[in-house]
Model the fold of this input.
Amino acid sequence: MLPVLEAETRILNLTQPLDPQQDVEWVPLHAAAGRILAQPISSKLDFPHWDNSAMDGYAVRRADVAACSADAPTTLTVIEEIQAGYRPQQTVQPGQAARILTGAMMPPGADAVVMQEEARRAGDRVQILAAPKLHQFVRRQGEFYQAGDRLLPAGIRLGAPEIAVLAAAQSVQIPVYRRLRVAILSTGDELVSPDQPLQPGQIVDSNQYALAALVAEAGAEPLPMGIIPDQPEALQQAIAQAVAQADVVLSSGGVSVGDYDYVDRLLEALGATIHIRSVAIKPGKPLTFATFATNAQSSTTYFGLPGNPVSTLVTFWRFGLPSLKKQSGLAAGWGPDWIVGRSPHDLTADGKRETYCWGTLRLNGGEYEFSQSPGSFSSGNLINIAQTNALAVVPLGQTRIPAGTAIQILQTGHVAIAPS
Ligand code: AMP
Ligand code: MG
Done:
């Protein structure tokens, strides 16, 4: 049994990202949200594109007004009005000013803006009541970004701020990594799909649906491959087909030590290298991780997840998702979202494996508070993992974390603020 952290490291080391040249597709900007940038982006434009005013006021030559004050104002002649979106028509000469509005281009000759609250206008004259500093209220060309520099690096997920930057840079076709294809298969003679009548002894295949939801949430494309019976030939054929079609294969069930657990044996028969067979995690001990070398550069990863519905979810969150993130081209931040919080109750474990307790995490008075789900804590109970958003970790070797102790918590969903 491999310790959890070692398993995570081993999996991530063996996961190869998509190729930034071959695995790229160009998508229109409006379809780029949530995708991962495959190539760095730069712009031919400076930001700001030209010197512009940060205030409504008057563009002046600082030398003209360097000595003025409210008691001794300087009077200038207003030569034009410049709104945002217009190009100034004249050069500001000594003794002159231009009326200017926020965001408008600075006229040649002017080197500072006096805000209108420090000016007194009368016809085509303006009295300046305070001496500005050089470049006061002027946003200088290139102050935020200089043309040719890197605007966005490759390997980031595009959210609203990045989309805004791309739009401002007039990038309308964006190079993003293609979506990973993730094959999902459920193994077990006892399984029936949710739309079939349930016979005594049968189990409904929930994992196929849970995994498809997780894969889609991660921005990848789920390829559901249905239920495969515990028959070596059928299973081998299904695995071979999945490996041929997908970048990642997720199977659930059949990786334990039972009489009908064939997955590991078939993976070896198909030429895979098995790197992990079991991990010291609860729930989820029988976890298989293997790779198929598809060519010199890339390989297909295979996760044989345990069949218990809660084990499937927990092992996917803990090991599958980080690997998927790395493989999809994300340059960093593959690991889970960890939070430190406290529970008002003791957390208990058997001490033999790193234990993940599912429950609800909330922000309460500025602190993260974790409450374990009510009801049975069995890996076969999938009912009480619904509507949870976190997994609290009891480390290997520990049997009890007393209430109020700082605990490591893996966030699986949105965290709300506790109602007061
Ligand atoms: P296994 O890992 O194949 O021994 O399965 C462990 C337990 O999980 C058994 O009780 C299975 O019936 C159950 N199980 C396996 N696959 C699924 C699935 N796809 N959906 C729901 N339960 C499952
Ligand atoms: Mg089974």
